[in-house]
Structures
1.
Amino acid sequence: MKRLQLGVLASGRGSNFEAILRHIEAGKLWADVRVLVSSRKTAGALEVAGAYGIPALAVSRKDFPTDEAFDENLLEIFQKHHVDFLILAGYLRLLTPVLIHPFKNKILNIHPALLPSFGGKGMYGPRVHEAVLEYGCRVSGVTVHLVDESYDSGPIVAQRCVPVENGDTPDTLAARVLEQEHKIFPEALQLFAEERIAIKGRRVYIQA
Ligand code: GRF
């Protein structure tokens, strides 16, 4: 078994990225983060990278003519840093085949709800939790899934439920979900590090 050589894509605060770094430090996740790329210059994830001494850079889509050219640049960065597995830790852009094909079945995303409900284009941040509460769901949760060419639609690797409590607001529900995100994302990655994942069609099988 070999350590995953991770490339991380982020657009925001970076708490999942930090949870992954903490699991690595604790020896619970067999991986090294080779580079963090942020799609926003102001993302907190850049500060997290700085604090942990992880190479990091911000790349703006505006500096490229097309989504494909943007992803081509990302691919070059990941290849230069010898990345062999990608994670989307709060990354808001859709990936193109330029990145998806070279990393087939090696890109994980985390979503703060139980997919296939409450996912898809525009479903991120507080909107997810607002929609869960508005619908009247009694549970919500978190999903870790492989990334394909649509939003939140690849094969599911791991899910965990949290209760919706009386009096929940989008913020309180988000906090309960986030606590589970910080555990399940590193745990799902560790399954890949241990080579315990087999994928057949949409189904992901976890070997004991
Ligand atoms: C998380 O809720 C994650 O599920 C979603 O984006 C958010 C990122 O939060 N994809 P953070 O940047 O990891 O704190």
2.
Amino acid sequence: MENKARFITFEGIDGSGKSTQIHLLKERILLETGDDCYTTFEPSTGPVGALLRQFLSGRVKTDENTLAALFAADRLDHLHNELNGILEKTEHGCHVLCDRYVLSNFAYQGNKENLDWIISLNERAISVLKPDCHIFIDVTPKIALRRIEENRENIDLYESMESLTKVRSAYLSLFRRFNGQENIIVINGNQSVEKIADDIWNKVSYLF
Ligand code: TMP
């Protein structure tokens, strides 16, 4: 086993089951290797993340470019802050599993006009910590929406059929753009929880 802290990010439309799979991968890594993982998510629990959650819930409003810049700023704080920053973990040899990272910013806030600008806003984060792989759990918007409606009391900004469909196709076009530059693993998320977890482990076990 190579003794290197791994940084694995999870991506997908809202309702794709990322948090369940992060939990299962953490357990699997512990079982197979004895290594513990730190799990975290974006928007983070920091001050910019707290502000972002107010925008997502509709409590306060702003424009898409401001949102894009705030997500990128939250990411830098998530990496660097001294309390529970990701770098602090990886530098001490701890694997990190992160629910969303730069690809979320590109897929959710990027459009024809501003995608290059958002990619440039994230260059610092990518140069500081590039994921060993991005796991994209691909579910149909219909299944995702059904799960969201079953499990939540409040529906967030991007949790409509129209938005889920748009974001999924934005992800798929990003994968064509980043093909070869980023290690993107697409997993069929329209399967049982156990089968998805096995597929993920089969794709990432070589990292451990
Ligand atoms: P979730 O992680 O619980 O699915 O919710 C986080 C929400 O934040 C989700 O709707 C996607 C959104 N988001 C962005 O729009 N851009 C980003 O850069 C990140 C990290 C999240």
3.
Amino acid sequence: MSRFFTEKYAELVPYTPGEQPKDQQYVKLNTNESPFPPSPGVLAAVEAEAKRLQLYSDPESGEVSRAFAASLGLKQSQVLATNGSDEALNFAFMAFGRELAFPDISYGFYPVFAALNHIPYTEIPLREDLRIAAEDYEGLGKMIVIANPNAPTGLCLSLGEIEAILKANPDQVVLIDEAYVDFGAESAVKLLGEYDNLLICQTFSKSRSLAGARLGFAIGSEALIRDLNTIKYSTNPYNVNRMTAAAGLAALREDFYYKENARTIMENRAWTMAELKKLGFAGTDSRSNFLFVRHPALGGEALYKKLKARGVLVRHFKKPRIEDYVRITVGSREQMAVLLRETEAILKEAQA
Ligand code: PMP
């Protein structure tokens, strides 16, 4: 810390992103990226837009916002385009966070954004089976943040359970982070008409293969989105760059490609889980583009390190209750075959 860093942030422990190694080519299954490249229309749109980079981007991200809203049956005024959904989360915390509650095991950025914005927070323990129990979130008197599916467990709440949380907290914003919703969970978007306290975040980073472009959305009532715009225009009016907005619009036009890819990921997930079970693994019933698994004979950290030494990168969290697990992004069938081959060899080695 330099002697100029303000006391305001002296205690801040920043978020640690998943490794992005440059030393060698890994089978990269650690940051839940898509194994599929963006669709051809996205590449063409980005190239065309690059010719206009001398001009600022549209501060409203109008075209992509209208198209995204229309895809959900909503108005443009009910969505806000952001620089990845991380920015949507931060704006929401800034706008609505007096006190916060979120699960003790969830996306690691929630406590960081809370600390950044000096918002006190309570972590609600997951139940023994790593599930979020909706009744634990009733009448807390705090803004609630829940990833659905949750990360890194991949487990979902039903729409009925989310509705119960919304009903039990009518005077608090309930933020549902749907980063992984396209891999088998049910979106809360259909509840928007009934609950003015519902705010949703979605991202183009996962199912739409645009992690490197940074595009996310906040989705909510016109009033909530107006508040988020107040924050946005006080932070970074041109938060979505021209090439990203063009990429997002093109991706929406080729939605069939991304839906097909999501189906493939779900098939690969089921196949990989079945194969891992044959090797003695147990795991959660993930509805995300990752698996969360453990093996009785090998700790999570040991497995992570041994896989890394063999060129396969997965994610391990040094956190009580989940340190036995690794989180494995579901990639292509070929990537999963390498993961399984190397895992089997590691287990054989451990038994020998
Ligand atoms: N929410 C969750 C639960 C995530 O895992 C991630 C990805 N790390 C994000 C939000 C943010 O993703 P992005 O900023 O790429 O949209």
